[in-house]
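Budget justification, computational time. The allocation requested in the original proposal was used primarily to generate structure tokens for proteins on the priority list. As evidence of use, we reproduce two of the resulting records. The first is shown immediately below.
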Amino acid sequence: MAKKVKIGLVQNRCTTDPAENIATAERGIREAAGRGAQILCLQELFTGRYFCQVEDHKYFELAEPVPGPTTEKMQALAKELGVVIVASLFERRAPGVYHNTAAVIDADGSYLGKYRKMHIPDDPLFYEKFYFTPGDLGFRAWDTKFGRIGVCICWDQWYPEAARLTALNGAQILFYPTAIGWHPKEKAQYGKRHHSSWEIVQRGHAVANGCYVAVPNRVGHEAPDGGEGIEFWGQSFLCDPSGEILAKGSTDQDEVLVAEIDLDTVDTQRTHWPFLRDRRIDAYADITKRLID
């Protein structure tokens, strides 16, 4: 595996046309690869607009098998360009069972596996429990040509347990494909605070686990069925194991971020800040309880 690796993150607006969105993602991947990126990650549910703002059975028609037609396109692209691709998709597993899933594809085009989103939100305009069954594959990591990577998805990013278990599986880089933004009525009062919390918690995961964290997030205002919709705040970023931001996107522009990392830094950070060594695993049994009464 390479020591110095370039990471690519693609942030963009989405339309109602899946073919157009896939073409946009392909252009982003090609641009990133042209700038030397070796591991690339697309934003959450990149083939369409964020439909979870409403509960409507028509949107189940957007789901597809994983692996399936879109992963096959990504596999061909990965093989052609010699890059690793993380692609977030709406998975149709069986009638009545759907997942929010990320496919992991190696640089030779091989399908390495998938992660199914474990934490499913149910907030205003984020009605994901209507669509997604909680993941059942656990927290995973994969050896790719350019490094060992782990993937969680959006709402997972608020949970230190998810980051820790992925790191304990050996992930050197933790990817969080994301779709998060502001409610228009709340932006003026809470917008800065909400974004700051989102960024801080993920930078904290990097520090606590001694790994890189990479987060592509979409941009643009989306209101699939009318209403006020969500203003996605972009600001995709990559940070190192000390939490320092190496690259960051804008709030409102389609962008491709590319930045180089040094995987030796993971070993150095974990050796000099040995949080994994000093964990008191004998004292953590209560972490599996909902609440300690």
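The second record produced under the same allocation is shown here.
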Amino acid sequence: MAKSKPSVARSYLLVHKANAAKINKITSVLTEFQMACKTVQAQQMRVFVQDGEKFWNRRGLQPFQTRLSERYKRSVQNQVVMGLSSWLELSKTAIRSIIAKSSLPSEVKADLWWLNRSGAHYAKEATLPAWEYLPNGTRLATPERRAAPQETLDLLRAIMKHVRKHQVNVPKLWQSRTMMLDGTVAQVERSKTTEHDLWVRVSTLEKGSPVWVPLKTNRFFNEAAGELSNFAQVSILDDNSIKVRLVKKSVPAPAKTDGIDISLDWGLRSTFATDFGDQLGRSLYPWLRQIDKQLTSLTSELQRKRIPLKSNGRYQRFQQRIRDYVKNEINRIINRLLRIYDIKSITVESLDFRNGGLSRRMNRILSRAGRAAIQSKLASIAETRGVTTHKVNPAYTSQQCSGCGYTAKNNRNNLHFKCRFCGKRLNADTSGSRTIAMRRSHGHVDLYVSRQAILQRLDGEFENRWGLSFSDVKEAHCRTKERRGKTLRPTTDGLACAPSAQQTGLMDELP
């Protein structure tokens, strides 16, 4: 039986021992590399938009002025195609959400969904399956094909234009200071001496004059599973120092079939709350609030002096410090969870990283850093440990009671959750994580459903379960407030509005 090919690639930062002369030769490549990235990206986007063709790293390059060798130009194209492909997948996700939340007819939605998945965003013509509907309403794609209506193709193009402008901007890959060098321009070799562990041979702008960069490995790199790849990531920092990362490729771990399912909710005070009641990472927000004061002060100073934030090295280093801290904290917490529990799957929502007490600028940094760190870590443990990830719609998870299902804004008061129907009390973050777990267990993922549709479904389920509508419970609360002139208090029977409900006859309607 043929051996399966490695499909998981992970990079590891190693300490290099290159002298100043070698570093200068490597950094001199960056400017040419960035200019080539800009030209190649323009060529790939032109073919994608004008001809409707997909990104392809083997497409012939149109001639352009550069000091890079043909091998370097191929490395540039590989990096550009990889970056644009990632952008396209993010755009597809955003488009799926827009289609699902639209009021278009179901068949038009199905056509758009199919074309979006096929990458036909700028196709001049495309084919679609003929849909077959079962008696229960399930839609199936038949082998028969039909031409996609021109108005559907135009609509998909308009949606992509909106996404490009407002949601997922096309990345400016030429601004990256990282060069991803494949084996044609960067060869990795084992050292034959004990002074260094590895060497990377990097081609330069001078033909026949490569530089050899000595590297020192570490325990984490040595113990990591996988085969060492003939590939190097070289990052040039603002001070013209370099960082070198090597890549190991391995076969992904099979999905775990034993263990427990756990749900995570991004907390208001703790970093994560689990449905078991764990409150993990309590030190993150105090640190962020302290750093936020320094960030606000620095931002005000630069704006007062009319210094652009993006061009200020101190401000950029400050942001990087925040991102690194958040990433390390998230990795530490998830690693700790894996040590405590035998986890086979993790359920999360589309996390909202906004937190009370932090500035808008800090919330934006935290959102970007936190979302990227969590996605990277969850992808990592899926590849290396077989822990799968499930996502649910985040709408109203903080307001829905995980016990009775009653959903109301006043159920949650900052860190405290108290159901206004059944009287259930617990930590608000724990309540959110239990609601996430409940939705997954009931099969209510609903990733691309609008908030309004989610609320209608939650109210419908509550009414079917208890025989009461949301308006009935709200009216009972209002009548009780009018009579008592104070906030409802739970009683021993667990119903927040029990006295009023008994008097109005609502209790008799409960199953």
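A brief technical remark on that second record: Confidence is low (pLDDT under 50) at residues 486-511.
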